[in-house]
C-alpha cells in the first residue's frame, strides 16, 4: 500500500508545482499587460541636452565643469537666520562639503544694507552698495556679516566649483528720509540722498507716483516703489559700469541673480538687466499658472521658479494622488527656464519632502535644495545620493511610464551616451512592483538609491519588473 500512496503523492505534488508555476506566469503576464495598457506620455521634445546655467567670467579660479545632468542649487539661507553678523562665515565653512556633494551653485539672501539694519533679512534695501562696510541704519555689518566676509565667501565658493547668485530686490526700497512730494501732495519716505555709499542717491522723482506715471505693475507693502521707466534708475541699476548690476558682477563677483517679487514690475526690466549685465537669472513669480510663468520667462529672457510644479507636488504627494504629476508644469513647458524647488524661505507646505526631492532631482529643470532641509530636517545622506543621481544619471528627455493614486514611474531617456534612468515613486504603505519599458535590451540594471536589492535584467523587448519601498522611491539605471 505504501508504494501506490507515495506515487499518488508525488503526482499530486508535481501537478501542484506545475499549477503554481503556471499561475505565477499568468500573474506576471497580467501584471505586464496592465502596465502596457498605460499610454506612455512623452513629456518633453528636445535634443536632450541638460539645463545650463551658463559660463561665468567672474572668477579665473573656478572650474565650472557641468555635470551630465546639469546643476543643483542650494538656497543658502532661511527666514530669520541667526543675527549677529556670522552667516557669511557659516556658509563659507560649508561650501567645501557642498561642492564635494555636487552642489553647483548657492543662492544668497539680499546682501546690502537694509532699513532694519543688523536684524534685516535684506528685503527692505536702503543702500545697494553697503555690504556691511558703512555705519548706517544702526549698524556697520549686515545681519549676515561684513563686506570682507562676503567677498571671502564668494571666493571660497568659486574655488569649490560653486557659482554664487545674489538675491536682487529692485521693486521697492526702504529706509529713506521723509520729504515733501509734489506728486502726492504729502510727505513720503523717498529721500535716499544721505546713503553712506553716496552711490545711487534717490528722491521722490525716482519713485512712483512721478513724472513717468502713477504706478507700474505692482507695489509691495507700502514701500516706495522704484520707477524703472526713469532713465536715472535704469542707469544706476543695469547700464553704468559702476552701477548695481555690473558692480555686483564684476567687482563682487556674483555669477547670477534671483529677482525678488517680479510681479511688481515689467518683464522688460529683467530682460534689460540680463542683456546689459549678463549672468544666470531666475525670477520669483509666485503663480501656479503655467501660462503666466512661461510668458514671463520668455519676455524676461530668464528662468523662473516653477510654482506650478511646487503646488502639483503638494497636491500629489500629500493628497495621495500621484496621477496629478501628469499635469502641466513649467519644467514640462520650458525645461530650460524652469527652476524647481520643494521648500523656500517663504513657503513650506509639502509634507512628503523626500518624495518631492526624488521627483525634482530626477526630472528636468534646475532643482533647488533648501538649507534647512539639507542641514537640519532631512537625511543628508539620502539627499547627497539624490544629488549624485541627478548629476550623473538624470539625462535626456522625459517620458511618464505609469501613474495612479500611489504609484508614479518616469523615464529620463539619456543623452550623449549617458543611459538616463527610471524613477519609481511609491506613496502607498506597502512595497510595490511594476513592469515598465526601458530603453535597454538584455541589460542588467540596479537601483542606485540602494532601497531595492534587485538586479533585474531587461528582456529583449526592453521590459523589466522593478520594485519600490513603501512611502519611498527607487531609481534604476544600467549597472555600470
From TrEMBL:
Pfam families per UniProt = Alpha-amy_C_pro, Alpha-amylase
* Cofactor(s) this protein cannot do without: Ca(2+)
Name all Glycosyl hydrolase family 13 catalytic domain ranges. Answer: 71-387
Q: Give the domain of life.
A: Bacteria
Which PROSITE patterns does the annotation name?
PROKAR_LIPOPROTEIN
Keywords of this protein's UniProt record, alphabetized? Carbohydrate metabolism, Glycosidase, Hydrolase, Metal-binding
* SUPFAM superfamilies assigned: (Trans)glycosidases (SSF51445)
SMART domains for the chain: Aamy
Q: Which Gene3D superfamilies match?
A: Glycosidases (3.20.20.80), Golgi alpha-mannosidase II (2.60.40.1180)
| Record keyword Ribosomal protein present | no
Cited PANTHER family: ALPHA-AMYLASE
Instruction: Fetch the NCBIfam families from UniProt.
Output: PRK09441.1-3
Family statement: Belongs to the glycosyl hydrolase 13 family.
The molecule here is called Alpha-amylase
